[in-house]
Amino acid sequence: MACESIIAVGLNNCTKFTGGLSELYVIAFKDLKKLTGSNEVYSIDAMTKLIDEIGIVTAKQFVQIAISPKASNGITVGATIDEAAGTFFFNPTVSFMLRGLTKENAEFIKTAGSQPVAFVAKDRNGIYIAVGLDGSTTMSALDGGTGLTAEEGQNVTLTFTGISNELVQHVDPTIIADITAP
User: Fold this and answer.
1) Angle at the Cα of 42 (from 9 to 1), degrees rounded to 5?
2) How far is CA 154 from its chain centroid?
3) First to last CA, the chain
4) What is the pLDDT of residues 101-156, one digit of tens each?
5) Residue pLDDT, tens place only, 158-175
6) CA–CA separation, 9 vs 7, rounded Å?
7) Are 161 and 93 in contact (CB under 8 A)?
8) Each residue of 35-57: b (16+ CB within 10 Å) or e?
9) Which run of H or of E encompasses 107?
10) Within its chain, how far is the Cα of 145 from the centroid?
11) Are 56 and 133 spatial neighbours (Cβ–Cβ below 8 Å)?
């Protein structure tokens, strides 16, 4: 693993960032396509460092997931470091709660859980983040049910994990309308 110089960053300790997601979109990785002249399904603008294009097969789009707004929906990232092998990569995880044991949720779980997927999420600060654009993100856990009491309610929590060379990938908000279903 080649060592690079550390890049200085401006720390703003006064900014408060709210945790969680306000919007979550998903697409089957098979419905993404490599961009012309690239080995990737996305491109990053050299100036803004934001994803400015995502290649999507004709007639397909990211679809919005009706996540439970007060639940613990979010993206977490860990890292795997193997100094002996000289490898370092990130392990992004997308977790979200679906309300109810509906037929629609069961069908979504069946289709999304059986293949690699990609996500675009809007966090509660208005920042768009992509996970899974490398084809490695798959469902790793599912937990839920009818609940034991009336107060618990019915829900299903899904967890998807992957491997990435990037901590997170930020998406230009101006492309969201073009890549998501109305």
Assistant:
1) 55
2) 24
3) 43
4) 889 999 999 999 999 999 999 999 999 999 999 999 999 999 988 877 777 778 89
5) 999 999 998 889 999 999
6) 6
7) yes
8) eeeeeebbbbeeeeebbbbbbbe
9) helix 103-113
10) 24
11) no
